[in-house]
Write a structure and sequence with these properties.
The structure holds 2 protein chains of 2 kinds. By secondary structure, chain A is mostly beta strands. In chain A, 5% of the residues lie in helices and 38% in strands. Chain A contains 2 helices and 26 strands. In chain A, the strands form 5 sheets. Chain A has an 18-stranded antiparallel β-sheet that branches. In chain A, strands 2-3 form a two-stranded antiparallel ribbon. Chain A is globular, with a radius of gyration of 24 Å. Chain A starts with 9 loop residues before the first strand and ends in a 17-residue tail after the last strand. Chain B is an alpha+beta fold. The longest helix of chain B is centred in the first third of the chain and has 21 residues, at 84-104. In chain B, 40% of the residues are buried. Chain B has 4 helices and 12 strands. In chain B, strands 1, 2, 3, 4, 5, 6, 7, 8, 9, 10, 11 and 12 form a 12-stranded mixed β-sheet that branches. The chains are: A mainly beta, B alpha+beta. The interface between A and B is large, with 46 and 38 residues.
Chain lengths: 452, 298
Amino acid sequence: MAIHSLWDDQYAISIRRGPLDWSDQSTTGSATDAVSHTDAGVPTQNTSSNAEYGGDWHFKAARGGGGASGTLTAAVAKGQTIGMPTSNAAVIFGIPFTGNPDFGAGVEIIEAPLADGMTVGRVQGAAGSGADASNIFRGGITPTFSGEFLVNSQALMQAGAIFFQEGAGENAAHKQLKTVATTSSSDPLYVGSILRKMSASAADSRLLSDCVASSFSLSADRSTPLTCSMDFTGRLLATNINASTCADTGAADFTLDGGRNYTLQDCKVLISQGPGSTDLKHVPVDAFSLSGSAETGYTFYNQPTPQSVLTGPQSWEGSITIPYSGRGTALTGDVVQKLLAQIGASSSTPSGTTDPIQIHLLWAAAAPGIADGSTVSASTAVAAARDLHIRLNCVLTDVSVGGDSEATQTLSFRCLNHMATNTTLTTAAVSIDTKNDAAANLFGFASQAVAY
Amino acid sequence: MADYQTTMKDLVSNIKTLLSSKTGSGLALEGIRQVKRGILPQNNQFPLITLIPDRELLPSLSSSGLVRIERTVSVFVFGQIHRPDDVFNVQKYADVAMETLRDNQTIPDSDGDPTVIAVEFTPITIDESRGGAVFSVTCTSEETLSRTTAPTIENNPTSKEVLDKIYTKLNDLVPTASNKIRAVFREEWDTGWARLLPSVTCQLTGHEQASRASGRDHPEMSFDVNLYSKVASAADSTLLTHLDAAEVIKVALTSEANWDGKCHNSALTSINYGQRLESNELLYQTTFDVLTTTRHNI
């Protein structure tokens, strides 16, 4: 009798750099962009020089090209994996999902049994022919996974890159997730693999192979530290993975990021009460949430697994709860209502256009000396290891008033990219910046040059 | 101090001022002979009101370390019962004291600025002898607590390691004379802590495997920190000095987010005020409840 104890669950998440050729399931040769597993769940092990691509080496702790260990000197090559760096030669993959989430296997849709007068549609199977054959169309829904974890900066970067795609970048210790401009490619640049270890060495662990994220949410309130929730959709779910041999014949690495968590009470929040980003007011916040979703498309071409995956437009919404009286004279209920209505903020007539406001949430080791209600011209770049900044470019959509002993107002907003031209991004809708423990600890994201 | 902020010491003082302002001739509390803070001396002039700090609750904090602290003060009314009207007077004074606080709502400081956001009351309880009445008033105020954070969190620290961090933090308060803390002890093995008053003791009270994420437990460790001061006299100043030291300890215990990476969060959840008799000595005792959440990677 087999029992799986939930305490024994461990999860790991790795990224493989794409774009992949979603129809290439070759298991030999030197294809760098073949999918990680065939439709039958067989690992694809393509090699080129000393590098191994896809297949069974997603969770290898030693950094380097496939079977060879080494140090990272540049962005990883197409087809190779990315983990959370703990040095320039080692990576980790563990991620502490809460609630022991499992994978959704995906649902096959059977449509349109032959309308031949029978009460119940019939299935004749492959042997049927002619009038006996039933007309069955099969469509695939790819396997899914939903997970939630308390944010550590490296885990956030690792998982978030699968959603932000080309917006994931780094410059030495400075790491960044940012919404990108419209000219970015729709082919996923970073493709994830998520492993749930069911046992140490039996072939019963579960792997969501070649997945992309369809949603990315962050939230924090007075009781709950910053929490990230994500939904993933994968190409294939393999349920016979051996966790002791799925990292280049070694055991998968489940080491967890040891960084700090981010409680709301350690956060400084700045909100601009005008269109400029240089008019940031410091206010206390009771709750914050941000939710991004991407229109991810799959094309099957009559195959059971997707032959093409496109990451479509993202939409971002969120809310933040601040005192109704703001702080000092800043962000009072009246000011926020005017911002929402755009009446009287700078003129006496309403406007058909609206200006974005900025919301900055700053977690810094050395707390910025910002007094309540004071004005800050701009938040400065992440300075210390494990600092985390979340900056949003928002348009207010609603303001509601509530509260317990103190009246509060909840600002609902949408985040939008602020463009100077149709290709030049001035202010990203969402920008998440963090700093790693050491400059040499690089993920290997393709974009090496990022600015705060 | 900014509007809607206060300390327990200032709160009892401001309540005393507010109630005292009603004791004049022709006013609602006319007849009250004194309004006092802390325990009563052997001999008193009745009727009187005395204010005893009860507790401070610190709910979960907002950003920037903003906390809406709920401070509770017990208001005792005592009288001498010689005739039926004396019983009614005790009840009347308790009613008036509550109404005075309820009608004011803001418990202003000496500048007339508000110090509390909201005021709530418990029912008035009349003593069986009919010579005393008591109710509690809970006042909500804002306060901003700044914390120091370490970037990384240690795996699986022992409770002793966390306790050592708390002890060291508190022990660092001793050399500063204005803190009025003479010694800090781990545990209360003997009565050594009672010989060096005002003293502080700290000890582990609970260790719970409270919650779990996959691959990572979050054990919760509870610690009690006690501050003891000798009640040398029933003078108000004895209590006020004790409350000053309690405020220093409160700031120290709330200034560490993760105790140099020993835990992933630390919270001072409540402060309870009381008295204790030790070695035939009456002491003011204040207990600080500290809850730390640590990490244990599987």
